[in-house]
C-alpha cells in the first residue's frame, strides 16, 4: 500500500529546530535588476509567518475534505475517495511545526470509525495512531444497519477505550441504512431505529443528506443503491466550516 496518509506515532521530530525555506522558483529574465533577483531568492524562517497563515498551510498539506480516513485494526489506515496526497512529512521538520500541525491532521480530517457491529469497535482500530493522537480526532461518522440495537453509552465506552473523547468530538454521525433499500418495511425500520436513538438521548438529532453535506460528509461517498432510505443521526451541535446542525 502507498505511504499512509497519517503520521504514525513513531514519527518523532528532530531535536533541533529546522528552518523551512520558502524560495521563489521562477528564473529571472537576463535583464532583470540585481536587487529584484536577490529578492526572488530570499530565504526566510517559516515560523516567522503569521500563525493564521501557518495553519492555512498545514490544512493545505494535511487535510483532504473530499476524502475520509478508515482506521483498520493492526494495519495502516485506508483513505477512500482520495482527491490529493497528504504530506505528513512536514511533521518531521521541527518540534514546533510538529506541535502546531499534528492537531490539524487529526482534528480537521474526517474518520470512519467502524462501530457496527460493536464487537468490531476495538482499541486496535487506533493502535496505529496511538492513543494520544487518537485523542485529537474530532470528526467521526459510522454506518449501521436498521437492526442495530446498541445503546449510545456503549459506543462512548468503546471510543474511550480507543482514546477518542466523545465530549470533544465536533462531528459524530451514524447512518442507519436498511439492509434492502427497496424493501418498504426495511426503510420503515431504519426510520424507527433513528427515532429510537434521538428519543433515547437528548444529545442526538436527526439530519438529512443536505445537512450532512454541510457538515462535510459527502453524498458521493455512498453508492446510489446504498443511499436510498438511509437515515442520519448526529451529535447535537456537530460543527462544520461555516456552520453546524442541531445546535
Automatic annotation (TrEMBL):
Residues 1-34, 182-201 are annotated as: Disordered. Residues 12-22 have a biased composition (Polar residues). It comes from the Eukaryota. Signal peptide: none annotated. This is F-box domain-containing protein. It comes from Trematosphaeria pertusa.
Amino acid at each position: 500500500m502507498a505511504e499512509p496518509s497519517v503520521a504514525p506515532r513513531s514519527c518523532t521530530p528532530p531535536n533541533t529546530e529546522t528552518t523551512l525555506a520558502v524560495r521563489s522558483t521562477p528564473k529571472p529574465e537576463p535583464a532583470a535588476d540585481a536587487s529584484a533577483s536577490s529578492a526572488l531568492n530570499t530565504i526566510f524562517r517559516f515560523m516567522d509567518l503569521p500563525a493564521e497563515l501557518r495553519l492555512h498551510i498545514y490544512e493545505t498539506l494535511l487535510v483532504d475534505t473530499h476524502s475520509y480516513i478508515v482506521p483498520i485494526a493492526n494495519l495502516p489506515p485506508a483513505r477512500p475517495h482520495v482527491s490529493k496526497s497528504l504530506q505528513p512529512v512536514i511533521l518531521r521538520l521541527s518540534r514546533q511545526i510538529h506541535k502546531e500541525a499534528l492537531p490539524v491532521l487529526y482534528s480537521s480530517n474526517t474518520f470512519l470509525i467502524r462501530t457496527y457491529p460493536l464487537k468490531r469497535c476495538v482499541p486496535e482500530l487506533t493502535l496505529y495512531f496511538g492513543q494520544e493522537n487518537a485523542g485529537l480526532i474530532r470528526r467521526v461518522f459510522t454506518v449501521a444497519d436498521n437492526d442495530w440495537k446498541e445503546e449510545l453509552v456503549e459506543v462512548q465506552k468503546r471510543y474511550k477505550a480507543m482514546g477518542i473523547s466523545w465530549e470533544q468530538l465536533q462531528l459524530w454521525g451514524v447512518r442507519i441504512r436498511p439492509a434492502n433499500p427497496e424493501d418498504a418495511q426495511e426503510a420503515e425500520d431504519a426510520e424507527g431505529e433513528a427515532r429510537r436513538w434521538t428519543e433515547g438521548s437528548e444529545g442526538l438529532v436527526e439530519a438529512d443528506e443536505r445537512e450532512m453535506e454541510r457538515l462535510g460528509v459527502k453524498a458521493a461517498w455512498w453508492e446510489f443503491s446504498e443511499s436510498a432510505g438511509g437515515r442520519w443521526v448526529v451529535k447535537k451541535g456537530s460543527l462544520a466550516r461555516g456552520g453546524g446542525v442541531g445546535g
